Amino acid sequence: MSATILVVEDEPAIQELISYNLELAGHQTLRAENAEEALEMVHAALPDLVVLDWMLPGMSGIEFARRLRADKRTQTVPVIMLTARADERDKLAGLETGADDYLTKPFSPRELNARVKAVLRRRAPQATDDLVEVSGLTLDPASHRVLGNGTPLALGPTEFRLLHFLMTHAERVYSRTQLLDHVWGDHVFVEERTVDVHIRRLRKALKPTGHHHLVQTVRSAGYRFSVSV
Ligand code: CA
Hints:
The chain is an alpha/beta fold. It is built from eight helices and twelve strands. The mean pLDDT is 93. The structure holds calcium ion. Residues 10-11, 53, 55-56 line the site of calcium ion.
């Protein structure tokens, strides 16, 4: 399982420990020392998940989470909140702000990894290694293979990620900007027509088994993965 995880923590030793353990578990990490820096990073590229310290200098973790939830672009990014206080009211406040889970310091790396895994599974299935199957089309992130009715299909790395995202978010329409955010992790530096290029390649790769029809164009809106016409 490999997700891009933004760690927002002002204490260098804790930030290092958390990041190191997430990397050991196979993830990529981005690090910020405060919420202001984290907002800039999120603006440049959407992470799959944020591990967020509650007590930060300047803008608090709660306020940062609130801002993520208030912006349409970032509102679905999963957040795990960290706090030094085991106060039940804090926990409620954190969850009300939209945190998906909550960990009290000190916690073990194993506990953090388990929570990360559970939240990703629930909120960002494209960042997990779970096998996905739709209508005879199977995608296996662990072996990086795609089978159409049992026949191996050859996909490039970008087409693979694109298909993984679309299959785990079936029946919903995504604009080119949203796909850039979720698949490329970037909506600023890549042109929108890049998406069209890779959609075309993806359809071509799925054609041998007729699964290209699942990747649908929704006029003036974007693309959708759907089993119905
Ligand atoms: Ca802190």
